[in-house]
Each structure stands twice: as C-alpha cells, then as structure tokens.
Amino acid sequence: MGTHVRTTPARARNDPGQYDDLAQYWWDPYGMFAMLHWLAVARAALVPPPSREGAVLVDLGCGAGLMAPHLRGYRHVGVDYTHSALRQAAEHGVTAVRGDICRVPLASGCADVVTAGEILEHVTDLDAAVAEACRLLRPGGTLVVDTIAATALGRFVAVTLAEKVPGGPPPGIHDPALFVDRDRLRRECARHGVTLTLRGIRPSVRDLTRWVRRRSDQVRMVSVPTTAVLFQGVGRRTTGGSTVDGGL
C-alpha cells in the first residue's frame, strides 16, 4: 500500500472484478484510488446543507464510501454492486445497499440528494441510470454527478495519459466507449425534471506535485473552462417522475 506503481490489468476493461482485486487500496490516500478521494471532496462540496431532519443522501456507485467523512446531517445510503467495497462503506457509517444503479432497490422519491460520482462512465445504459437517479429524488431534491466526457480529449487524458501517471485511475478500470456524451446527459436529466449545470474540473497542479512528493495526502479539484475531459454536474428536480411517501 501507499505506492504509485502502475500495474498492467489482468482483466478486461471495465470489469467490475477489478474492484475486488484492488479492495486494499480504497482508503489508501496514496493508492490506486487516490483520485477518487479528491473527487469525493469536490462532490461533497456541491451537496447542499440538509433542509430537514432525517434527510437522505443516496450515493450511487458509492464504492467504499469515500464521501462519508465529508457529509454532515444526512443519512448516507450507498448503492454499489461490489461486496468488498460495500463492506468497507458500512464500516465508515454508510447504509450499504447492494444493487445495480440502473435498477436501484429503493423507493421513488426517497432521497433529498442523489450523487453519481465516477459511475456513469461505467454503465452500458446511461439513460436507465439517469432515470433511476432522478426517480429517487424528492421534488426539489438535488442531483450531483461527476464523470468523464465522451470526447477525443477525454479519452486521451483519462486513458492514454492518466493510466500511466501517479494519481491516475488503475489501468483498465475504464472503457472509453462508455464515456458520457454531455448533451445526452443533460437531455436525459431534463426529461426527468432535472436541469443539469456542468463545469469542468481537474486536479490542482500545485497540490498534485505536493502529493507526488508525499507532502500532502489531498489534492484539490479546481474549475477549468472546458467540460471536455472531467466534469461535474448539479441540478434540482422540479418536475417529472412519480412521488411517494419517501420511505426507503
């Protein structure tokens, strides 16, 4: 643990089994999932303060629950398919639910906030994943996403470049064919009552340099003018979808 060594993938790209292979690295700030820690902080910063007692945040693709230390006032419900990750999430106070984010086993309208961090670029049915995220939201609830753009630049930076440098994703973890079309994402969100605003982000070069030198275990994500590589999206549900009593 705690190494910047990049390894050659033994599995096919986007194989979920990789997360079991790399389970020891989830909470290592210098390990293979280091950037997911940085993104968790940036994602949590977009989560509004809870508007009611007992507010629920549903974390789609929660992994080992890396957002847990950065959330206050919410019941943090994490949905993931990988047993080894969910076990670690539960150890960090997350209510762990095993499930497919395209068929989430939770009630419609149960969530005040839904996050989908670094997961949309792993699904084969983006429309279904977006529909489920929006279905879970109460009217007025907030959707927060971050993912990788389906552009030539996105594929070059996130795969060709990032898989070879410290702080980048594990080799083979992404299939660039599944990267997300930004217009399609906004269109599908709008169809389900969520107007999504996007902004591009990247790691701070200064912080990344300090991280490589082991002078800091955290790297800030900073805004950039383009959403052509890595981007965040945030929006509120105003219309669409069915409403229920909000119970999990």
TrEMBL record:
<dbReference type="InterPro" id="IPR013216">
    <property type="entry name" value="Methyltransf_11"/>
</dbReference>
<keyword id="KW-0808">Transferase</keyword>
<feature type="domain" description="Methyltransferase type 11">
    <location>
        <begin position="58"/>
        <end position="145"/>
    </location>
</feature>
<dbReference type="Pfam" id="PF08241">
    <property type="entry name" value="Methyltransf_11"/>
</dbReference>
<keyword id="KW-0830">Ubiquinone</keyword>
<protein>
    <submittedName>
        <fullName>2-polyprenyl-6-hydroxyphenyl methylase/3-demethylubiquinone-9 3-methyltransferase</fullName>
    </submittedName>
</protein>
<dbReference type="InterPro" id="IPR029063">
    <property type="entry name" value="SAM-dependent_MTases_sf"/>
</dbReference>
<keyword id="KW-0949">S-adenosyl-L-methionine</keyword>
<keyword id="KW-0489">Methyltransferase</keyword>
<dbReference type="GO" id="GO:0032259">
    <property type="term" value="P:methylation"/>
</dbReference>
<dbReference type="GO" id="GO:0010420">
    <property type="term" value="F:polyprenyldihydroxybenzoate methyltransferase activity"/>
</dbReference>
